[in-house]
Design goal:
The chain is of the alpha/beta class. The protein is built from eleven helices and twelve strands. Helix 3 (95-106) runs parallel beside helix 4, helix 4 crosses helix 5 (170-180) and helix 7 packs across helix 8. The protein starts with 11 loop residues before the first helix and ends with a helix. It binds ligand PBG and zinc ion. The site of zinc ion has 5 residues, from loops. Zinc ion (ZN) binds next to loops.
Length: 323
């Protein structure tokens, strides 16, 4: 009666024995948004459950995260002042350097990653310095600044750097800058294959980082390109990245598998703001079983080839995994 596939699905214990992909709280990195002040924890409408927080609130949040078994965070900064180059990001008293110092002082056991980019810090909202003639981000000047930013984060005590600007040669430039400053043991997780995606919309509300004019198509990738997606990650592997990434995640699972199969480094996916908000809003509308859809989505990332999942859902996932 039962055939060769179904006979293995009848007993739940056997189903567990045969499960090919597993999720663990150890797979997750949780994003946090830092701003100056104290006692500030402001929810942003487009991302229910995600907050802009002052540093003291981030330090408090880390206690909750550790209780859930989450020991890794990625920090984004919302500076008090923006300028044409994004000076706050390269200053030892800037929002991120300060956040890293305070979080590491209170939580030496927390693995702190910083997003390395300029779009939150520039008054024009682009991911580097603008070339006045070409009216696009100047690649090589931005590389110098990325290396400076990396050293500032390193001196503040960060545990891993995650450059997200999609500049050509950014991994080599940052690695060289870190090595010259003596930070030879600081790993780099590259946003190696990052698409120019409409799924980043809600993030730009939270991080206050929308480009003033134009878009990011001259540095982020065309969502239509598969060969180029592989080539970008392969290049970063050669330049010395320690971990690669595909971003966004959900609409790009084919690329996740392609990158996994064409590189030998650990691979992260960024389950981005738009993906998160879609599930939240669908749940609010009563049209999905939120927990079930969320867990199925996380499992899909692992199955596609992700080793690490950066997700705003991390705490909710951890709660379910604890049950
Ligand atoms: C900065 C950065 C962005 C995200 C992560 N790092 C925004 C962008 O590239 O516009 C997006 C994350 C998300 O949507 O959750 N370059
Ligand atoms: Zn950026």
């Amino acid at each position: 009666m039962f055939t060769r596939f179904r006979r293995k699905r009848i007993n739940p214990v056997l189903r567990n024995l045969l499960q090919e992909t597993h999720l663990s709280v150890n797979d997750f990195i949780y994003p946090l948004f830092a701003k100056s002040g104290s006692g500030i924890k402001e929810e942003v409408g487009s991302m229910p459950g995600v907050f802009q927080m002052s540093i003291d609130e981030i330090v408090k949040e880390c206690y909750d995260l550790k209780k859930l078994g989450i020991y890794s965070i990625i920090l984004f900064g919302i500076p008090d002042t923006k300028d044409s180059v994004g000076s706050d990001a390269m200053c030892e008293h800037g929002i991120i350097a300060q956040t890293v110092r305070e979080v590491k002082a209170a939580h030496p056991d927390m693995f702190v990653v910083t997003d390395l980019c300029f779009c939150e810090y520039t008054d024009h909202g682009h991911c580097g310095v603008i070339d006045p003639i070409l009216q696009t981000v100047d690649n090589d000047i931005t590389l110098d600044n990325l290396a400076k930013q990396a050293v500032v984060h390193a001196k503040a005590g960060v545990d891993m750097i995650a450059p997200s600007g999609m500049m050509d040669g950014m991994i080599q430039a940052i690695r060289r800058g870190l090595d010259e400053a003596g930070f030879v043991n600081l790993p780099i997780m590259s946003y190696s294959t990052k698409f120019s995606s409409a799924y980043y919309g809600p993030f730009r509300d939270v991080a206050e980082s929308s480009p003033g004019k134009g878009d990011r198509k001259s540095y982020q990738m065309n969502p239509a390109n598969r060969n180029e997606a592989i080539a970008e990650s392969v290049a970063d592997e050669k330049e010395g990245a320690d971990i690669l990434m595909v971003k966004p995640a959900l609409a790009y699972l084919d690329i996740v598998r392609d990158v996994k199969n064409n590189t030998s480094l650990p691979l992260a996916v960024y389950n981005v703001s738009g993906e998160y908000s879609m599930l939240k809003m669908a749940a609010k509308a009563g049209v999905i079983d939120y927990d079930a859809v969320m867990m199925e989505t996380m499992m899909a990332f692992k199955r596609a080839g992700a080793d690490i999942i950066i997700s705003y859902h991390a705490k909710e996932v951890a709660e379910i995994l604890q049950k």
